[in-house]
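USER:
I would value a second opinion on how I read folds in C-alpha cell form. Give me a protein, with the fold worked out from its sequence. Write it directly below this note and I will take it from there.

ASSISTANT:
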Amino acid sequence: MKKLIPLILIIVVAAAYFYFNFQKTDVPGSKVDDASAQLILFWGEGCPHCEKVKDYINENNLESKVKIASKEVYYNQDNQLQLEETVKKCPEIDSSQGVGVPLAFDTQNSVCLYGDTPIIEWLESR
C-alpha cells in the first residue's frame, strides 16, 4: 500500500499538469471577442512562428492599441473549425493542402495574413 501512494500521487500530478497545460487558448492577456476584434490570430502551442508573432505583440504592447482575438488551434477543436471556416473567406490562400499557423484575419478588410512576416508587417502598420 505504501508503494501505491507515490504512484497515485505521480499520476494525479501528471494528469493535472496535462489538463491545465492544454487548456491554454489565448495569448496571455488577450480577452477580446471576435465581434469587436480588428484581428483574429490563429496560433498553435509550440509553433515557433506563432511565438514570434506573440512575442512581437507582447514586446510592443500591441494589445493596448489593436483589438486582437486569439485562437489556439492545436488543442482546441472549436478554434480549429473556426480557422477552417475563416480560410474559406480568403481566396488568396490555397488551402487544398491544408493550412497552418500562424494565420490572422483582418476583420475590417476581410483579408487573411498567412505566416509571421505578413502578420508582423500588418501589426507594424497600426
